[in-house]
Design a protein that fits this description.
By secondary structure, this protein is α/β, with parallel strands linked by helices. Helix 1 crosses helix 3 and helix 2 packs across helix 3. The radius of gyration is 23 Å and the shape is globular. The longest helix is centred in the N-terminal third of the chain and has 18 residues. It has three domains: 201 residues, Rossmann fold (3-Layer(aba) Sandwich); 79 residues, Luciferase, Domain 3 (Luciferase, domain 3, Roll); 107 residues, ANL, C-terminal domain (GMP Synthetase, Chain A, domain 3). It is built from 18 helices and 28 strands. The strands form seven sheets. It has a seven-stranded mixed sheet. Strands 9-8-5-3-4-10-11 form a seven-stranded mixed sheet. Strands 20-21-22-23 form a four-stranded antiparallel sheet, with no helix packed on it.
Length: 533
């Protein structure tokens, strides 16, 4: 299918509404919207936000679970030239404060709670918002536990009265394809988390190529059980489907029973998954009771793609990507042999260049040789208000240095081998080890903590820690984990902790912690604990 003419979110919305009109676009656990209905809601909300003062480059932060309103707010902000700040729904007080402060967010739209997370409580814990977040002027709330001075979403919508079409049309015309549409965070960290700038053009053009690899059409219905704030969902999935006129089914929360029921009821032809979702689907004892005959495609990691194939989805794709590259930079062809899709991440998408270099000499390496993966083309313009980090990552020739290890094969396909960086990728989320170490160090009995990632079939990696107690003290494991649960998001809590003596922490010749040997020791004890469990 040809790439749509428009390269802005609102322009794409108008084009798809004109082309597909009453065809279903969005479905969640509450309601459905056609392309026309979606456009109508977006424009109404845009008028309200216009009255509130949203203009070009206004930062609007959004804390919300998976529901249609997430996408409506996204497009309404973009129509006016504003920038949506996608906030991780697992974050707590410190993380929320950092996200809002570091992005200069002046408006916050939030639900009072989602699943077990109470965001109203977390915001109250920040204290005096006028001092902690001086640029935050307006809070709009969903639910009953509103913050003092907050406006309800219903009250916001009433602000649209009296705003004419011409007012928002003029702002829409001034939005350019290379303007920022999103600020999304690359990892689940707090003070070290970086806000990535992402443009209208990159979101639309790059993801159209992803849809082409899946052979998407207007007849496809894609299930999205992954969180909306991830680039995997709000860029990769949303725009891959939308640029092909398809339909998106949003799962309010990940629940394996609801997932299968929804796939059957909605006749989903595709699904966006993570390894843990794929493994749970394959292991689900009642899966054969559901009619999944419509399912053919979607995205999944190469290591578990064969499980989806066994379930009848023979056109799944696997790929390689990161937030800074608009979701995916490489993808396999959906109709390639299964063995090929299991072996590598496919070839670069149209408009993406990849090369492999020696990280020390920066020399380009020949095919078949492992080195650092560099990307050029559809990559972020940079990290918001962080020119130093941007210069470190994007060189003078426009190459983005990923810090990942890979091999380019003779046919141009990429094989991902691992990470140079110390980031732990668990369940699709990047965790910075020092963030977890800081939490562990804040426990009164902990003297030292070293955090690494250990290989895990379900989550790619798990967070593991080696901990040393203060002299003369002992550490109660339950108390330590309870401390972590109070202080950090769930995905940062160590799944394995080994308590050792001070002299058992491996060091380099220069006296620094040897993370490689630490990982070896932790993996040995972790595997032993699993075999005796």
């Amino acid at each position: 299918m040809d790439l749509p003419r428009n390269r802005t979110f609102a322009g794409l919305m108008d084009e798809m509404a004109e082309r597909y009109g009453e065809r279903n676009f969005l479905t969640d656990n509450v309601r459905r919207l056609s392309y026309n209905e979606f456009r109508k809601e977006v424009r109404h909300l845009a008028k309200a936000l216009y009255k509130l003062g949203v203009r070009k480059d206004t930062k609007v932060a959004l804390i919300m679970g998976n529901q249609i309103e997430w996408v409506v707010i996204d497009f309404a902000v973009a129509l006016l030239g504003g920038v949506l700040v996608g906030v991780n729904t697992w974050w707590k007080k410190m993380e929320l404060e950092h996200a809002l402060l570091s992005t200069d967010s002046s408006i916050l739209i939030m639900v009072d709670q989602y699943l077990s997370n109470n965001y109203s409580l977390a915001m109250r814990e920040i204290g005096d918002l006028s001092k902690a977040l001086p640029l935050l002027k307006t809070i709009i709330g969903f639910g009953t536990d509103l913050l003092p001075g907050a406006m309800t979403y219903e009250a916001l919508l009433k602000l649209a009265d009296g705003v004419d079409d011409a007012s928002i049309d003029e702002l829409q015309k001034n939005v350019k394809p290379d303007d920022n549409a999103y600020l999304l965070f690359t990892s689940g960290s707090t003070a070290r988390s970086k806000a990535v700038e992402l443009t209208h053009r990159g979101c639309i053009e790059n993801t159209h190529g992803i849809g082409e690899r899946m052979y998407l059409t207007e007849l496809d219905r894609m299930l999205m059980p992954t969180s909306m704030f991830w680039s995997l969902t709000c860029i990769n999935g949303l725009f891959a489907v939308m640029t092909h006129g398809g339909s998106i089914v949003i799962l309010f929360k990940y629940d394996i029973d609801d997932l299968f029921q929804t796939m059957e009821r909605e006749r989903c032809t595709g699904i966006y998954t993570l390894p843990n979702i794929a493994l749970a689907m394959h292991a689900y004892p009642h899966r054969n009771k559901f009619d999944l005959s419509a399912w053919r495609t979607g995205t999944v990691r190469s290591g578990v793609i064969h499980l989806m194939h066994e379930m009848g989805a023979h056109e799944m794709i696997s790929g390689y990507g990161l937030t800074e590259g608009y979701g995916h930079s490489c993808d396999t062809d959906a109709r390639a042999p299964l063995a090929t899709k299991m072996r590598n991440a496919g070839k670069p998408l149209t408009g993406v260049e990849i090369k492999i270099t020696d990280p020390d000499t920066q020399q380009t390496l020949p095919s078949g040789t492992a080195g650092e993966i560099l990307l050029r083309g559809y990559i972020t313009p940079g990290y918001y208000k962080n020119p130093e980090r941007t210069r470190e990552t994007i060189d003078a020739e426009g190459w983005f240095h990923t810090g990942d290890v890979g091999v380019l094969e003779e046919d141009g396909s990429l094989t991902f081998r691992g990470r140079y960086k110390e980031l732990i990728k668990t369940g699709g989320i990047n965790v910075v080890p020092v963030d977890v170490e800081d939490v562990l160090h804040s426990h009164p009995r902990v003297r030292q903590a070293v955090v690494v990632g250990l290989p895990d079939k379900e989550r790619d990696e798990i967070v593991a820690a080696m901990v040393v107690a203060h002299p003369g003290q002992t550490i109660d494991m339950k108390d330590l984990l309870a401390h972590c649960k109070k202080s950090a998001a769930a995905f940062k809590i160590p799944r394995y902790v080994l308590i050792v003596k001070d002299d058992e922490v491996p060091l380099t010749d220069t006296g620094k912690v040897h993370r490689g040997k630490t990982q070896e020791i932790l993996e040995k004890y972790y595997l032993a604990s699993k075999s005796t469990a």
